[in-house]
Structures are given as structure tokens and as C-alpha cells.
């Protein structure tokens, strides 16, 4: 058997064809061949656990880093999924409301979001994924905050200084709204290694977009897809062909990982 490595794959744009949302067939074949060769294979995604779980189960995974690094699934069991730092998140919530922007708050690992009014929807429209809106006129987040969605236009980030709090991550994915969620793919990966007994120098990460920057650091072997963001390619050790051009399979074969 080849020396055991620990492979971590982003989902969107890496494992999946963004046009269809489905896993690239050759990538699924590569995952099985890596597992059959004795390697550790896992997802590392910014998706919340509830959102990543269907893909995880449909494609035969048993291990996953999710929720931007906060969630850990080992042997199919969710073993960790803590919320955001409440003090930092609540301060940003108050700052956002005071500045006149709408806010949606996810208090658990589900499609539910809470708000005191419809300001977010009026300013940004509805979210671009399944969501159940719970509107309560006197709503205030008084318990766990897992994610927040801010109706913050591009170019106005300076109006919310708490965006840069070190305990919070912020990203834009789809639409113009800002998503407040963990941005700790590297730390989540390292926590996974601690639990399964792996070494950082044996890790190989695959990614394509800006939310993969955090895990594209030494000593990991970093593989950027051919369709990746230019800045991620600049951080990579290896640039694969585009994911839809069988990039994962071709690089694994070329590197002798099968």
C-alpha cells in the first residue's frame, strides 16, 4: 500500500459541476480509488452541516469538515458543530441593525432564519437557497448564532467595523448579501487530524474558490482546479485540469495516489 495520505475536497466547483450541482463522475471514481488504496478521504466545505449532509450521504462519504471548519463528522457521526462566538456575532448584529441593514439569523443547524421584519428581503430579495423565514416583531438573538445574512451592499463594508472581528468570518457566495459564518477550514481540518491520528504533512487539499484560501497553506499539498480563482491558483503546489475535465482523477493518477 502507498503511504497513507489524508485527502480533503471542497464540494462546489471542485467535486461538483457548478452547472448541474452534481458530482463529476470521474471525481466519484477517483474518491473510491483513493479509499481502496488505503487513504483517508473527506469533504472540507463551508456549507452548514444540514446543507452538506445530503451530498455527503449520496456520495458515500464517512468523514467531513463542514460549517466552515466548525463541524466535524467522523464515521458518519456529527461529533462537533459549535455556533459562532456569541458576543462577537451579537455585536455585529446590533451594528448592522443600527446602520439600517436587514439581518437574518440562523440559530441552529437548519433552514430556519429569524428576523424582526422584512428589511432583508426588501433590500436583497429572498435568499438563493431553501429557507424558512420566521419574522417576530420583537426578535433579538439571545441564544446560539450559527450564521447571519446581512443585506450589506458591496462597497459599504467599512460601515460595519465588527465584520473584521477575528472570531467571525465573512464571505459572499450567491447574490449580493454578506454571509457571516466560520472561515476556518484549516483549523477544522487540523481538528479532524487530531481525532483520526493524521499528520499535517500527509494532507492533500483540493479547492477552487476564495473560501478555500484558509486551507491553502503549508505543509498541506495544495491542488487548485483548473477552474479555480486566480489567487487560489497562485497559492497552489499543483494546478489540475478543470474539474469537469476530469481534473481530480487525472491529477490523482499522475501523482501515483491510486
UniProtKB/TrEMBL annotation:
Gene3D superfamilies reported in the protein's UniProt record: 3.30.1240.10, HAD superfamily/HAD-like
GO cellular component terms given for this protein: cytosol
Domain of life assignment: Bacteria
Pfam family, one: Hydrolase_3
Record GO terms (molecular function): magnesium ion binding; phosphatase activity
Full protein name: Putative trehalose-phosphatase
Native organism: Pseudoramibacter alactolyticus ATCC 23263
Lineage of the organism: Bacteria, Bacillati, Bacillota, Clostridia, Eubacteriales
Amino acid at each position: 500500500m502507498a503511504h497513507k495520505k489524508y485527502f480533503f475536497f471542497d464540494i462546489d466547483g471542485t467535486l461538483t459541476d457548478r452547472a448541474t450541482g452534481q458530482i463529476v463522475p470521474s471525481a466519484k471514481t477517483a474518491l473510491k480509488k483513493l479509499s481502496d488504496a488505503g487513504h483517508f478521504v473527506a469533504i472540507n466545505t463551508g456549507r452548514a452541516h444540514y446543507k452538506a449532509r445530503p451530498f455527503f450521504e449520496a456520495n458515500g462519504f464517512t468523514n467531513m469538515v463542514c460549517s466552515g471548519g466548525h463541524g466535524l463528522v467522523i464515521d458518519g457521526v456529527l461529533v462537533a458543530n459549535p455556533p459562532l462566538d456569541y458576543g462577537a456575532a451579537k455585536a455585529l448584529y446590533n451594528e448592522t441593525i443600527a446602520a439600517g441593514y436587514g439581518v437574518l439569523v440562523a440559530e441552529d443547524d437548519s433552514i430556519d432564519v429569524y428576523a424582526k421584519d422584512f428589511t432583508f428581503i426588501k433590500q436583497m430579495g429572498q435568499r438563493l437557497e431553501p429557507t424558512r423565514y420566521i419574522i417576530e416583531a420583537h426578535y433579538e438573538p439571545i441564544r446560539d448564532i450559527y450564521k447571519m445574512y446581512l443585506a450589506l451592499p458591496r462597497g459599504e463594508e467599512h460601515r460595519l467595523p465588527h465584520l473584521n472581528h477575528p472570531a467571525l468570518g465573512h464571505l459572499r457566495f450567491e447574490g449580493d448579501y454578506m454571509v457571516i459564518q466560520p472561515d476556518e477550514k484549516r483549523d477544522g481540518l487540523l481538528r479532524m487530524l487530531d481525532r483520526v491520528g493524521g499528520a499535517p504533512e500527509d494532507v492533500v487539499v483540493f479547492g477552487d474558490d476564495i473560501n478555500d484560501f484558509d486551507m491553502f497553506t503549508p505543509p498541506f499539498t495544495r491542488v487548485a482546479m483548473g477552474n479555480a480563482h486566480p489567487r487560489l491558483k497562485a497559492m497552489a503546489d499543483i494546478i489540475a485540469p478543470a474539474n469537469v475535465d476530469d481534473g481530480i482523477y487525472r491529477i490523482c493518477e499522475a501523482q501515483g495516489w491510486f
